[in-house]
Specification:
This protein has about 220 residues and is an alpha+beta fold. The protein contains 1 helix and 17 strands. The N and C termini lie far apart (about 100 Å).
């Protein structure tokens, strides 16, 4: 670390587990002496620290929401550096884009694994801005269902091209929030018809050519 610097890292978990968090001093700072190292969870100091050469770590057993949140380590001496670890649950959205057609209804699903959110919020993306979806104000367009405590559905009615884009589901926990990303592609109804229209066009052209050939043949017979 370097004096006054701070490093942050998000750690996503999908189930109860044991985890080790470690702060390590780069070799170029190994000459620093009389270092004071403090691990904290929030404002609470953690006493049990494992020390090896230039490294200080803590062992955590993550069982439920109460173990999530921010853990920090601070190294003080001639110089000072710190690191913050944010433990958050894994939120699963659909990685592949959801494809639907204009006029149809799209349903997007998010799940939280291992931890129960206190609340869910859905967002739509408008440029670089994320806008919260309020289904009570736009009941004819959006329906949000919390099927179980760990699963939420967003239903978008009467799709238009304007609904095409990126959506986010956010789960709120006692000690933080986590988001899942979903993509929706809205296609025109003409897209699935294009191959059929191409075949029809070919048939019409073929029939026209045959008809013209027959007319030419009959005229030729009459003039003979």
């Amino acid at each position: 670390g370097v004096s006054g610097t701070s490093v942050e890292k998000n750690i996503t978990l999908d189930r109860a587990t044991r985890i080790e968090l470690s702060c390590r001093l780069d070799n170029k700072y190994s000459h620093l002496k009389s270092l004071q190292v403090t691990w904290k969870r929030g404002n609470e100091t953690i006493r049990h620290i494992n020390k090896t050469e230039n490294s200080w770590s803590i062992q955590l057993r993550i069982l439920d929401n109460s173990n999530l949140g921010g853990y920090s380590c601070t190294l003080k001496g001639e110089e000072e550096t710190s690191a913050m670890f944010h433990l958050q649950p894994k939120i699963e959205g659909k990685e592949k884009p959801i494809v639907s057609y204009e006029g149809d209804t799209a349903v997007m699903i998010c799940k939280s694994f291992g931890y129960t959110p206190t609340a869910w919020t859905w967002y739509m993306t408008n440029g670089s801005e994320q806008i919260a979806i309020n289904d009570s104000l736009l009941a004819d367009k959006y329906v949000i269902n919390r099927l179980t405590a760990n699963v939420t559905h967003l239903k978008i009615l009467k799709l238009t091209k304007e609904d095409d884009g990126v959506y986010w589901c956010e789960a709120a926990f006692e000690l933080g929030k986590s988001k899942g990303k979903l993509k929706l592609r809205v296609l025109s109804l003409m897209v699935p018809l294009k191959p059929f229209l191409a075949i029809v066009a070919e048939v019409v052209i073929l029939v026209t050519i045959v008809f013209l050939y027959e007319m030419y043949s009959k005229k030729k017979e009459k003039s003979a």
